Amino acid sequence: MFLPKYPDSPTPPPTYITPTATDPAPARRSAPQISVSTGAVAAVLIGGVVLTALLAAIAVSAVSVAVAAVVLRSLLRDHHRR
User: H-type helices in the chain, by residue range?
Assistant: First the structure.
């Protein structure tokens, strides 16, 4: 029931050897080439710039909130001591 069904194996075509005066040169395999489009590279670069800008904005906001908290804390402490 759960056994896979394999397709029938086709018989290979017959090979014919034709006599030639010179043997052809063996086929040369070239190294695989990776093709990356310019749009993909631009998208990655723009994405990196946007993420870096967002991270910098979050860091600046966190620092400004921390500074405001320290200033308010010192003002409230001085106000309660008087």
Answer: 38-81
CA gap 47, 77 in Å, rounded = 45
Other C-beta atoms lying within 10 Å of the C-beta of residue 62: 10
Question: Domain total for the chain?
Answer: 1
Domain that holds residue 64: 38-82
The answer to whether position 73 is within a domain reads: yes
Residue 16 inside a domain? The answer is no
List pLDDT tens digits, range 20-79: 666 566 667 776 777 778 888 999 999 999 999 999 999 999 999 999 999 999 988 877
Half-sphere exposure of residue 47, counting CA atoms within 13 Å on the CB side? 6
Q: How far apart are the first and last CA of the chain?
A: 88
Residue 80 has pLDDT above 90, yes or no: no
For the entire predicted model, the pTM comes to 0.49
